[in-house]
Write a structure and sequence with these properties.
This protein is mainly alpha-helical and 214 residues long. Helix content is 64%, strand content 0%. It is built from 10 helices and no strands. Helix 1 (12-28) crosses helix 2 and helix 4 crosses helix 6 (110-122).
């Protein structure tokens, strides 16, 4: 649960932002993301609807911002927390712990993530060079970069970047989200862990079979 904003002489904009995110979180506890309107959020936060649009742009922009808030704790644990997520252990242990944590995060926020994924894949807007690929969540870049770095550290012979896309992308796919919606978090986490352990323990390819070799 997000902390309720404190009243201070300064930081009015930050307090309003936190109030809006808190109101959205409380509404999500009772309603599916697609059932929540900007008017409901504004009323619950005690601000005008224009303030919500000004700060977040759209309903899905608001949902993305809330999901980013929820992902901050995991990012902080990865960058400066204790093992097994934090730096003071092996890349293998960090990778397995991180993927377990990602599955848990997605399982706790499956409705919100499903809505974000649907919005990303159906958005009708021209792509630009700087855009995230359709279907990627706003924190996908960090997740991918972290998994890729750990894979490269443990198995430099593998195509870490591509494998990281496979592993993270699998958790955004509709059949997996449906499993999490049915409460099969342990099944998803266990299967993903088995897949990664098999990958890490596989015999390295011969020189002529290495990725990128003609």
């Amino acid at each position: 649960m997000l902390a309720r904003p404190r009243s201070t002489p300064s930081g009015t904009g930050a307090r309003r932002r936190r109030a809006i995110l808190l109101a959205t979180e409380e509404l999500l506890a009772r309603h599916a993301p697609e059932k929540i309107s900007m008017e409901q959020v504004a009323a619950a936060a005690g601000v005008g609807k224009g303030t919500v649009f000004h700060r977040f742009g759209s309903r899905m922009g608001l949902m993305r911002a809330l999901m980013e808030e929820r992902a901050v704790a995991l990012r902080e644990a990865v960058t400066g927390g204790p093992p097994p997520l934090g730096p003071d252990t092996t890349p293998r242990e960090r990778l397995l712990a991180f993927l377990d944590a990602v599955v848990e995060l997605i399982a706790r926020n499956k409705g919100l993530l499903a809505a974000l994924c649907h919005a990303s894949t159906t958005a009708q807007r021209p792509a630009t060079e700087d855009d995230e690929p359709h279907g990627e969540h706003p924190f996908h870049a960090f997740w991918h970069g972290h998994v890729s770095a750990l894979l490269a550290a443990q198995r430099p012979d593998l195509d870490a970047g591509l494998l990281a896309h496979f592993l993270i992308g699998a958790l955004q796919n509709e059949p997996v989200l449906r499993l999490l919606e049915r409460g099969e978090t342990a099944r998803v986490a266990g299967t993903l862990r088995a897949l990664v352990v098999g990958l890490l323990d596989a015999v390295p390819p011969a020189d002529g079979d290495a990725p990128g070799t003609p």
